[in-house]
Design goal:
134 residues; alpha+beta; extended
Amino acid sequence: ALVKRSTDLPTEDVCVPRSIYARLFPQEGTTIESVAEFFGKHGTVLSVRLRREKDKTFKRSVFVEFATEEEAKAVAAKTLKYQEDDTENLVMFMRNDWWNAKKKACEDKKAEKAAKAAAKNAEKAEAAEAAEGG
């Protein structure tokens, strides 16, 4: 007999709308537990994901999932310092807003790169024409 799913898979990730992106955490001593405890003072934390570089070093940024989208929005709107002696406030966005900004930055970078390549090719073509004609 075939095993079937009792409910369909969700078409959209339900975690993203109730998650925030936060950065400017200390490189040393930041743990999932310490971040969960910090944000737990401001809402019900369901999960914390520390972002890492390819070499596994901490990127100083995290994704925090809250119980509700309203909690996440309320926390993202606050001005918070991770530690009292920090000189900088945490930079926080709703996860979707962060993702859209990151996607746009990547698209802008690609467009800029393409424009530079086109300009370089045009210069080469002009140089080749000048060499043939002269």
